[in-house]
Amino acid sequence: MCEHACFRRRGRGGLGGRGARRLRAAAIPFLLGLSSCLPDPASPILPPADLKPPLVLEAGPEGASSFLLRFDEAVEPVEGSFGLEPGPASPAARAEGDFLRLEFGAELEPGADYAVTGEAEDGAGNATRFCFSFAGWNGRPAALRLSEAQAAKNSSASRPHRDFLELVVEEAGNLGGVELCWANAAKRFSYRFRGVEVGAGEYLVLHLAPEGRAEEIDELGADLAASGGVDASPGARDFWCGAGGLPDASGAVALRPRPGAPVADALFYADSGKEGALGDDKLAALVAELGEAWPLGGTSAAWEDAFRWKPSTARSLCRRPGSERGAEAWYLGEASSQSPGGPNDPPGE
Ligand SMILES: [Ca+2]
Ligand SMILES: [Ca+2]
Fold first, then answer.
1. Ligand positioned closest to the Cα atom of 164
2. Low-confidence ranges of the chain (pLDDT < 50)
3. Cα dihedral 58→63→65→68 (10° resolution)
4. 239, exposed or middle or buried, with CB in 10 Å at 0-12, 13-18, 19+?
5. How far is CA 211 from the centre of its chain?
6. Which ligand is nearest the CA of 321, by number?
C-alpha cells in the first residue's frame, strides 16, 4: 500500500480529446436542424459523451519489482509517461482491463522510499495522471515483538535514560519497511526501518529522543557496537529517530510488518488515574487500529483496556515472556532496572 499519494486527473475528453472529436461529429446534424426548429429547453443540448477520466481505486507495490493500479474502468497506458524515482530505468507498463501493472525490471530495496508517476487513458482518450510514493516491497519481513518501552527522559546523573522502544526478533528476516507508529492525544508519529537482515533472538533498540550527537549511529552493518549515545547497547542493534518521543504517561505503539498491513504487535499504556472512554483524538484513532494485537474489553476502547501505571521516568514498561497480548502481557520494571538491548529483569512478586 502507499503511505502517501498525490493524484490529479486531466480530462482530455473536452475540446482536445478523442471524446470531444466524437462529440463534435455527433453534434453537426443536430446543429443543422436548428434552422427549422428551436430546441426544447427540457431536452439535453448535447448528446451523451464520456468526459470522465479513469479514477484510481487502489494502488500499491505488487511485489519487489512491480506496482499495480486498479481503475474504475478499462485503461491503456500512455506510452512514454512512466517514471520511477529513484530508479535505473523507466518502468514498462501493461494494461489488463481495469488494471495497470508497472514492471521495474529489477527488485527494489525493501523499505526504501520510491515514487512512481505515469498516465493512463480510457477508450475515449480521457487521461489520468498519477503520482504515488511507496515503500519498496519486503517479501520476508522479520517478525518482531515489542519488549520494553521507556516512555520519558530520566535525567539521573549516574543512570540517565531517554525514550526508547526495545524489540526482539522472533523470526529472522529483513527489517526494510517494518513500521512503528506511536501517538499521544494530539499527534501521531511513525518510523520505518531500513533494509537490514536480522536473526532470531537479536535485540533492536529504537531511540526516540536522540540528542543529535555524532555517535548516535544507525547500526545497519555487522558492527553492533558502532553507536554511542544514551541507552546505546554494544550487543544490540541501535536505531535513532527524531520524529518525536513516546508520550510520558498515556500512549499507544503499533508495529506493522509493512505500511498498511494489520498491526502485528502493540502497546497501549495509560495513567492509572484515567477512566472511561477515550476522547476523539489521535491516540483513540491509533488504539482503534490495534485489532487483535491489543484485545479490548468492549466494542470501543476505554482507558481500562490499557496497561495502567503510575507514570515514572525511573521505570520502564516491560513485556512478559510468552505469547500474551494486551495489558496482561506487560509489567512495570523495578526502578532503575531499564535494560535497553538486553533481557528484562523478571517481574517482581
Ligand atoms: Ca549497538
Ligand atoms: Ca530490555
1. 2
2. 1-8, 11-38
3. -20
4. buried
5. 26
6. 2
* Measured distance CA(125)–CA(32) in Å, rounded: 27
Query: Grid cell 521505570 — which residue?
Result: 315
Residues 6+ away with beta carbon under 8 Å from 5: 59, 130, 131, 132, 133
Write out pLDDT tens, residues 288-329: 999 999 999 999 999 999 999 999 999 999 999 887 899 999
What is the C-alpha separation between 249 and 253, in angstroms, rounded? Answer: 13
pTM of the shown model: 0.82
How far is ligand 2, taken at its centre, from the CA of residue 329, in Å? 15
**What spacing in Å lies between the alpha carbon of 282 and ligand 2's midpoint?**
28
Q: Output the nine-digit C-alpha cell for 322.
A: 510468552
Question: How far is 192 from 259, CA to CA, in rounded Å?
Answer: 8
pLDDT at position 47 is 67
Q: Angle at the Cα of 211 (from 345 to 169), degrees rounded to 5? A: 40
pLDDT tens, residue by residue, 188-204: 999 999 999 999 999 99
Q: Which domains does the chain have, with CATH numbers?
A: 4-135 (2.60.40.1220), 143-332 (2.60.40.1260)
**Is the bond preceding 86 in cis, omega lying within 30 degrees of 0?**
yes
Q: Which ligand is nearest to the CA of 207?
A: 1
pLDDT of residue 48: 72
Tell how far the Cα of 340 is from the centroid of ligand 2, in angstroms. 4
